[in-house]
Amino acid sequence: MNIYVIEDNPFFRTKMMKVIQQVIAESGYVYHMKEQVVTAKEMLAEDLSEGPHIYLLDIELQEQYNGIDLGREIRKIDTQGYILYITSLENKLITIIDEHIAPLAFLSKKIDEQVIKENIQSAFEKIKQREEQRSDNHFFTLQRAGNQARIAYKELLYFEKVPRSKKVMLYTTNGVYAINHYLSSIKEKLVESQFIFLNSFIIHKSSIQKLDAKEDAVTFKDGSELFVGKHTFRKIKAQFQS
After folding, report:
1. Of 74, 105, 135, which residue sits at a domain end?
2. I need a surface site. Which of 41, 61, 72, 180 has the fewest CB within 10 A?
3. pLDDT of 30
């Protein structure tokens, strides 16, 4: 899930990004700052359909789009995206916007940095909870000894191909399973936007807690680790941050 900050005041944008980075570092959210995307035009050129993503938009944006128009454009592409408006406008206009775009929150420019940080923390926690609820609707169906078992996506960590065999090992928060299928056939059963697909692995993005470039290791939310080669690690990092 990417974070876009579209604010045409360079000072305030830098301030917002600093606060967001602090919240992510302190809370361990798996959200990715798109620092190089500065304008509305640049953001709309991104593939937002792979969302949901998080958008912090200045209502008073002085570009081709103002914040309200930009919010409507986002809703056409990323219908489940999370919009947070940065504003100094009165509540009457906020109510009108809320009826059309349904933003998650409003962040006032008139409050101090600590309060902004607390508001962002609260919004990100709501996003985390909503995404957990959404992922509960997805299951991987496991065929074992003629029986079916459904494993919720939130329990999936990664799939690993067993060399020179038609077998895959599935690692979950509740144990390890052997599956008699090719990795390619498993890929067809998964929601593509939620996974990293490699030659020997399929990794659930939401289960990743940390990437360690020094050790070429992936740490998962249950504390388990996957050590890979440098080439594979670079591919994981690229897909994780895309």
Report:
1. 135
2. 180
3. 81
